[in-house]
Amino acid sequence: MLSETEINRVLVVTAHPDDVDFAAAGSIARFTDRGTEVTYCLVTDGDAGGFDRELDNGGMAELRRSEQLNAAKAVGVSDVRFLGYPDGTVTQSLGLRRDITRVIRQVRPDLVITHTPERNYAFIAPSHPDHRAVGGATLDAVYPDARNPYTFPELLGEGLDPWTVREVWLNGGQTPDHHVDITATIDRKILALRAHASQVGHLKDAENFVRGRFAQIAAAAGLGPDRYAEAFQRVPTA
User: Fold this and answer.
1) Single pTM value for the model
2) Average pLDDT of the chain to the nearest whole number
3) Cβ–Cβ contacts within 10 Å for residue 119, how many?
4) How many Å from the N-terminal Cα to the C-terminal Cα in the chain?
5) Close Cβ partners of 15 (under 8 Å, ≥ 6 residues apart)
6) What does each C-alpha distance from 98 to 93, 156, 219 come to in angstroms?
7) Mean pLDDT across the stretch 173-186?
8) What pairs with residue 173 in β-bridges?
């Protein structure tokens, strides 16, 4: 498993705007505070989400892209990329694997963070079909696609040489085995989530909900009272 000092570049691949902030913004803030380069890759623009029925899909997509850019700034991330797939209909396709492989070869990360491709029967929210499709496609892109020069040879023509990601962190699963203490960065996680007004603006007490949720995770991890944590499953891939 990678140590913190071995992680110089991180790529986060998610289905929708706000996914990274709910799952990992506290951990991302820890990375950027140490000078780690972090890139976000969002497969969709989130055009099928939100509560403002006056916006059409194009208007919602533009709004959610803007919200994600502002949320990224709150945790020190400036490199945010959108693949433009339609929200709600993502499948684990060969084309999606190729597009994620392209970003991996461009960014050349030590660590990739993405969704678990498995359904969580204890807590259904992370099991959106887009999440599971993106998680599965990302794992396929990490292994074997990104490291195999014979997979997607057109990427070699773009000057993108193979790259081996050394580790993946999966979020949203039932069996996390790695907990990151985000007590020092919980306020910035909440600030990032507040940027997604189209998603959380209707909640009366979003901050206490977030604090309660991630305090529970910390307690389950044995970190003690008054602590907050994010949970992942670590997958060695090198």
Assistant:
1) 0.95
2) 94
3) 14
4) 9
5) 42, 43, 44, 90, 115, 128, 130, 131, 133, 134
6) 9, 12, 39
7) 97
8) none
